[in-house]
Every structure is written in C-alpha cells, then in structure tokens.
Amino acid sequence: MKPITFCRRGFTLMELLVVLLIIGVMSTVTIRTIDATRSRALFDRTAAEMKELAKAITGNPDLLTDGRRVDFGFFGDMRRLPTELKELVENPTNSTAWHGPYVRRAFSGDSVSFAYDAWGNLYGYDRNTGTITSPGDGRHTLTVRVADDLNQLENNIIAGTVTDTDNNPPGVIPVSLGLYTPRGEYLASATADAGGYYAFESVKIGQYRLVAQYGVNSRDTIARWVTVPPRSRVVVDFRFSRPFRNLIRVVGSPVVQSDSSGFTVSVVNDFTEDIRIDSIVLVDAPDSSGVPKAFMRDLRVDGASWPGFPLYTGQRGYGEGDAVPLTGGLVIDGLRAEVVSVGFLMFHEDSLGPPSEKAKLNGETFRLRFSDGSEMTFTLPHDSI
C-alpha cells in the first residue's frame, strides 16, 4: 500500500498545520474584535440612555425659545428630584404639577425598559445625590450625575431693581414682589428696599412668574416671566409707568375745628388713574419730649365718619407713627376730578380717650403718608373755624 500524501511537495503536513494555526489565530482575533465592538456598543448605548435619564430629570438645556431655555424636566415641574426613576413615567402621587412622561417614547419603547441598561441590569439611582449608575459589564461601572452639585439646582438668585417712570427708587413706598409657578402657585415674596433693590434667594431651576405690585393698588402691577438655569443670578428690573411720590396732594389750607381738637385737609389725585388709599400714617404728630400726646379718635371723609369710627372710650386712639386704617379703601378719582376732604378729629391727650381733655392742635405740624406713598407736611393755623 502506498503512503498517503497531501501534496506533491515535501513537508505538506507541516504546512497544513501552519495554515490551521493561522486560521485559528485569525478567528480568535476576529471573535475578540467582535466582542470588543459589541462591548463598546453596549457601553455607548448605556451611556446615552443614562444621559437621557439625566435630561429627563433636570431638562434639556439645548431646548430654547427666543433664546431662553424652556425645558427643566421633572425637577422643573415638581421642584424636587424624583424619589425613584419610575416617577419619570408615572405619577404615583397624582400631583397636578407632574407633566410627564419625561422619558422620550423613542428611547423607552415602553414604561419599563427605560430602567434597564444595555446588559439588562436595573439602573441604580440615589435621590440624595442625583446619581444614576450602571454596573456595566461587571468590570467597568458607569456613573452619571444630574448636576455637579445639587446646589446648582436649588440655590439660584433672582434680583433686580424697582423704579418709577422718572427712574426714582420707591423710598418708603411699599413695593412688594411675589414669585409664582407657571400655574400660579405662590412660592415666596420680597419687598424692595428704599433704593429699589430686591432679591429672591434659594431659587430652584425652572420657569417662574414674577409680579411686582406698587402700593396697595392691584392695577399698579407688572408681571414678568423668568427663566432660572443652574448656577445663575437672574436680573429682572421693573419700571412703573407712574411716579412713586406725591400723587395725592393738599389743595388749599388745612382747617382747624372750632374746639381745636381736629383738622380737615382737602386732597386731589394728580395721577391719570384712580388711586385707592387703604391707610394714612401719622408720621409726625404733636408730641412732648418724644412721647405722643395727641391721639385721634374720629376719621371723617367728606363730612361722614369712616366705618369703624369714632372710637369708643377705652379703644386706643391713633398717635404719632400709627397707620390709620381706611377699611374698604378710599378711592380718589384721577386727573383731579374730585376734591376729597379728610377730617382727623377728636384728638385726646389720653390714648384711651375721655375723660381726659381734648388736645389743642393750633400751630402744630403734621406729616401724613398715604398708602400709595404720597406724603404731605403742613402746619395748622393758630385760628380755629
């Protein structure tokens, strides 16, 4: 029997072994390359999903309208981080602020798969740090934080100034500001200082409605929409179309009553619109060594006692520094359309009224501040009428 040969050349078996070895090496390299490519793809897919989850929580900063960011995700609506990731697709508390699902349908496909990485592992989530984790392939973990520091989400500032049409600050005039959610829910308030500066601190990211109100007249109101991104100090200035000072002014001379215990002033409204007055402060009134000695017990408007007046004996009267309330508000027509007489009567030296003697106001100086900010100072004549 002839020996078996694989080739007409010598060493044919060795050559075959070499070929097989090369094929084996190439197969190993190919398999490893495929595994590495597949592993890289799984890492990339998981990393992309984790970034999408982070955007679902705090919003996509690239979504803009008129140059302003409009997407703040779950945090922008609920004003907190989710307790667990399923809150991104479910509303377990039935909150009216929830406007999800916040995970894009193309990403999740259903209400469950969004919570798993590309290897089928459930994503980890720490609500205290805003951290999303994946165990990856078991050797290399992935971590994404919704913010470098949670303070960036919660401790922002809205600040600015308030001025009138002449660029004057409010001074002693009350200008209040209210911060609201886009749905109109009240969050916080601030008051502009004498120089017009105000600030809201510890403001969370999101969109807000900021309302500035001058005095007590709801018509004197300006509203602004405010967008607060992370790590921000947002400046919002308000300028009212009317001057802050002295819209209410005295016409003629004050008149002292016949018993000298009260006086009447006539006022008009120089502004184009009606002004409502809710109180009048006796900024300066007769005193003795810094101690008030005159207390008003009756307030009359156009000759009629205002509701709540006169005061009974035992009820404390209104002295220097006190705000005299105008319950229900006194509306003075604009453009000097009416002259309103306001009588400050029945001043007693005892804050509780009779049986003490009535005060004598002839020659005394008074300074009044109306709730709209108007101030007037005058000295009463020595002669009574």
List its salient traits.
385 residues, alpha+beta, Immunoglobulin-like, five-stranded antiparallel sheet, four-stranded mixed sheet, rod-shaped
Walkthrough of the structure:
Among the domains are: 152-239, Immunoglobulins (Immunoglobulin-like), CATH 2.60.40; 248-379, Immunoglobulin-like (Sandwich). The protein has helices at residues 12-58, 73-78, 105-108, 151-154, and strands at residues 64-65, 68-69, 124-126, 131-134, 142-145, 156-163, 175-180, 186-191, 197-203, 206-214, 221-228, 233-235, 238-239, 248-256, 263-269, 275-284, 287-288, 291-292, 298-301, 304-305, 323-332, 340-345, 365-370, 375-379. 16% of the residues lie in helices and 33% in strands. 28% of the residues are buried. Strand 17 and strand 18 form a beta hairpin. The strands form seven sheets. Strands 14-15-22-19-20 form a five-stranded antiparallel β-sheet, with no helix packed on it. With 385 residues, the chain is an alpha+beta fold.
Short description, anyone?
Helices cover 16% and strands 33% of the residues.
Q: Provide the succession of SSEs.
A: HEEHHEEEHEEEEEEEEEEEEEEEEEEE
Alpha carbon gap, first and last residue: 156 Å
- CATH architecture name of the domain at 248-379: Sandwich
Subunit arrangement of the protein: single chain
Low-confidence stretches: none
Top CATH class of the domain at 248-379: Mainly Beta
CATH fold descriptor of the domain at 248-379: Immunoglobulin-like
The secondary structure category is: alpha+beta
- DSSP summary, beta strand count: 24
As a percent range, the share of strand residues is 25-35%
Rg calc: 38 Å
Taking the sheet with the most strands, its summary is: 5 strands, antiparallel
User: What is the average per-residue confidence, as pLDDT, rounded to a whole number?
Assistant: 86
Helix content: 10-25%
| Overall body shape | rod-shaped
